[in-house]
Each structure stands twice: as structure tokens, then as C-alpha cells.
Amino acid sequence: MIQPLLKYPDSRIRIISIDVRLFNDELHQWINDMIDTMKAHNLDALSAIQIALQYNIIVLKNGDEFLHYVNPRIIKCSDNVIKTETSIYYEGLSADVDRFENITVIYEDEKGNPLHKNMTGHIARLFQQQLDYCFGSTFVDRVDKESRERFNTLLEHGLVANAGSCPVVFVRDYFKRGAKYAMGLAALSFIIPFFASPQICEEAYKIDIYLLMSVPVFMVAYFFYAIYESRRYKQCTSCQIGNIIGTTAILAFQLLIVTLGVFFWVAP
Questions:
Q1: 20 to 30 Å CA-CA from 90: which of 10, 47, 101, 130?
Q2: pLDDT per residue over 29-53, tens digit each?
Q3: Cβ proximity of 149 and 1 under 8 Å
Q4: pLDDT tens-digit series, residues 65-120
Q5: CA torsion angle for 208, 211, 216, 218 (degrees, to 10)?
């Protein structure tokens, strides 16, 4: 039976699939539903969670054959290759993703018999894409931070993230960025004394004072919002208190250096 596909912004795509324990007629029906859905949507690959089944099942199309993998895992991999990927969940998005060219997988068939297989090229990439879905992930989790932020801006509701997992974009980073921009603009004034008149230096100094005064405000906002995020996302390594304090200390040190430069070099 053809099943509806999960599409953005359905948050069920973030559910981590569980392994199949009963190899019975129900499992056969799930696999048949996945194949029917693939045929209806002309898909080359599908994971069970994409039709809202929280089980670790992948089906890949190979020619006219539909091959199914129950409880799959990658046990060996080699040769990274970057290629552009799209997603049937995030329609309209594409990104360059780094994946393995060669993999060895272990899995079970519909009767629970353990098997293994070597995959390479396109079929290996398809398998890795579907395995991401099984573990509550999508291709956007494999791109760099700047790309995730761009996707987050383009999508109407932002990137979908499980409330219990690390978000793709931390709000606190905007405060840190504001502090860095203010210090960066102040630091640019270091070149003014080389070519500008004393009057211009005096004006630049006044602007620097306002910029430097804004940095502690950004730092305080960063610190307290980061504490809030650390309580909300306790499992994220970047949310740990030590990291937050360390980042704040680095910002304070950078502020000290820029401030000394402004007062001893730019000040009239």
C-alpha cells in the first residue's frame, strides 16, 4: 500500500529508528509498503521513518530489483567523495556532502538471517543517505555551519530539530558574532593614524568608544543565553558550562587587546 511521505516541517523525521525484533508478516507488509511508495514516487531509496515507521529498515532500488536491509550498520568505509545531494524531505534544498565512496554493511533479511555486502559509488551514497534518516538525521546535518544557517533562513519554519537534540543554529552565536563585529570595526581604526588628520582620529576614537561599550553588552547577553541553552540542550558538548566560560574569557581577552590598541594608538 502506498504511504504518505514525511515532508518538511514534519518533525517525526528526527525520530531515531529502533531495530526490528520480530521477523513476521507485519515486517513483510512494511517492506511491501515501502516498495509501493517508492514505485509511486519514482524513488531509488527509502528508509522506513520516511513513511512514519520507526524501524531500522532501508530499501534500495537496483535496476528492477528492490533490495531491503533490516537493522543495517556500516562496519567498514573508505575514500571520501564530495557530491551534491538533495532531499525529498527538504524539497528544493541542495548541498555538497562528503560521504564514503566504499562501504561494507551488515544487515538482516526479512527472515532475520545475518548478511553483509560491499557497496561502492552511487549505491553506497544512497545507502548512507537512508541510514542518516534511520538515526534521526538528514543531509543538512552534514554541511558546514554557514550552510545550515542559510538553510535555516530560507525555510519558512527554520530547520527541523528535535527539542531534545542539539539545534542546528544556536541563538547565543548571534550575540558572540555581534561582539566580534564590534571589536573588528574598532580594530580597523588602527590604520587611521597612518594617513588621517588629528580631527579624523578624534572622530574615529569617539566611534570606537561606543563600539567597545557595546561589546560587554553582547558578552553578557551571550553568557546568560548560553546558560539557558546549556540547560535546554544538556547532551550537546558545545553547551557545556566550561565551553561557555572559555568562549566568554576569549572574548574578554580580545576586548582587552582592542581596547588597549584604541587607547594607546587611536586616541588623540
A1: 101
A2: 999 999 999 999 999 999 999 999 9
A3: no
A4: 999 999 999 999 999 999 999 889 998 889 899 999 999 999 999 999 999 999 99
A5: -160
In the chain, % of residues over pLDDT 70 = 93
Cα–Cα distance, 121 to 126 (Å, whole number): 9
CA separation for the pair 4, 24 (Å, rounded) = 23
Non-local (6+) Cβ contacts of 193 within 8 A are 201, 265, 266
Q: Which three cell numbers stand for residue 218?
A: 553582547
Q: Cell triple for residue 195?
A: 594617513
CA-to-CA separations, 204 to 39, 178, 182, 213, in angstroms, rounded: 66, 19, 13, 14
Q: What is the dihedral of CA 81, 83, 88, 91, to 10 degrees?
A: 140
Q: Report how far residue 1's alpha carbon sits from residue 29's, in angstroms, rounded to the nearest whole number.
A: 8
State which fold the 11-154 domain adopts.
Peptide Deformylase (3.90.45)
| Closest residue by Cα to residue 28 from 112, 100, 120 | 112
DSSP state of 136: T
Q: Domain residues of the chain, as ranges? A: 11-154, 172-266
The pTM of this model reads: 0.60
Q: Per residue in 181-224, pLDDT tens?
A: 999 999 988 988 888 888 888 888 899 999 999 999 999 999 99
65 close to 76: Cβ distance less than 8 angstroms:
no
Instruction: Tell me the three cell numbers of residue 249.
Output: 574569557
* DSSP code for 4: P
